Amino acid sequence: MPIAVLCVLLLTAGAHPEAFAIPAEGEDDGMATLRGAAVAEGDVAYTAVRELHGPEGTPPGGLDLRVVNRPGEGLAMAPLGDEEQAFVVPASSALETLDERLLAMLEDTYRVVDAGEDELDGRSARVVEARRANTTVAGRFWVDGETDLLLGRAIYDEAGETAFSSHLTGLRLVDEDWPEEALGGEPWGDAIDHPERERLRAQGWVLPEHLTWNLRLVDSRSKSYEGRPVVHSVYSDGLSQISVFSQRGKLGEEYLSTDRNGYTGTGMGGEGVTTGHETIFGGDVGQYQSMWQADGFVYTVLADAPADLASSAVTALPGPEGDSEFWARVQRGLSRLGPT
């Protein structure tokens, strides 16, 4: 049966894979600003509301989270008005913010440029753009002029439509709202190094180092569920983040592979709940989800990404044997967000 998954996705979305035939060239004069924002996240205590929005037309239209950052301890999050569901991402956890690995991939894939000054929620901000090789804008970051904190980001598909946006409102440089009781722990499990991944591959696990040339493995971890391992692999191009969960087993007849295919609006990231063969996921607004079985494994993909990039991630993995219509159904699920 599939595992209950923990997925707190704070870095999101990307662009059409065909736009990356080659990395974008040119001076990356915006990287210093983003690296400064990464440092500030570990140094500045703050309380704010993070407003999340997925692609236009996806339910439920948005999600507001109360966030509290306490340097050295981590980031606490809870749905606005429901602080009893607070979850703390420890400061030691991987991929919690502008992780240096993701920044390096962003720099490798895109041209990252300083686009001047702007204002976000009444605060002066420096804008950084990630541009594709064809010069279109794949993403924008707003970095606070006073604190260097990342105030917001917006990610765009090849047509220029917003695939995902997130920004802080009501920023206060205090942390008195820190929840004293909250879910916590290391959400990503135990890190798996390259030799261990090779050992698992020899046992039949499909753990690619790349899903596409620009979606590269940035983190691989394992948790035990009912005495059996589940592997969580995270892929990114610096903007998008694709989580692939794999586990030996099969889905029950009542849960077909395509039941979980498509973009859905869900709650904040949190500990999932497994009941029988059904997995309830925690994730971000507008998050793509797909679950299927192939070759004795159950695969679950969670992706904050435009439809075409999510499609390239899913189709890079094994499809169900004897199901020639599977990828067509995947495409139909993705088509809700636009052309693929």
Strand arrangement within the widest β-sheet reads 4-3-2-1-9-8-7-6-5
Strand content: 35-45%
Would you tell me the overall average pLDDT? Answer: 75
Helix and strand succession? HEEEEHEEEEEEHEEEEEEEEEHH
The helix content is 10-25%
Task: Give the uncertain stretches in residue-range form.
Answer: 1-21, 256-286, 335-340
Main β-sheet: number of strands, strand sense, barrel status? 9 strands, antiparallel
Quick gist of this model?
The protein has 5 helices and 19 strands. The chain has helices at residues 31-43, 100-109, 194-202, 307-315, 326-334, and strands at 46-53, 63-70, 74-79, 87-90, 111-120, 123-131, 137-144, 150-156, 162-172, 190-191, 210-212, 215-225, 228-236, 241-248, 262-264, 273-275, 278-280, 287-294, 297-304.
Attribute tags:
about 350 residues, mainly beta, 9-stranded antiparallel sheet, 8-stranded antiparallel sheet, 5 helices, 19 strands, about 15% helix, about 40% strand, disordered N terminus, disordered C terminus
Task: Give a verbal description of the structure.
With 340 residues, this protein is mainly β. It is 15% helix and 38% strand. It has five helices and 19 strands. It has helices spanning 31-43, 100-109, 194-202, 307-315, 326-334; strands at residues 46-53, 63-70, 74-79, 87-90, 111-120, 123-131, 137-144, 150-156, 162-172, 190-191, 210-212, 215-225, 228-236, 241-248, 262-264, 273-275, 278-280, 287-294, 297-304. The strands form three sheets. It has a nine-stranded antiparallel β-sheet. Strands 10, 11, 12, 13, 14, 15, 18 and 19 form an eight-stranded antiparallel β-sheet that branches. A two-stranded antiparallel sheet has the order 16-17. Strand 16 and strand 17 form a beta hairpin. Helix 4 (307-315) packs antiparallel against helix 5. It is globular.
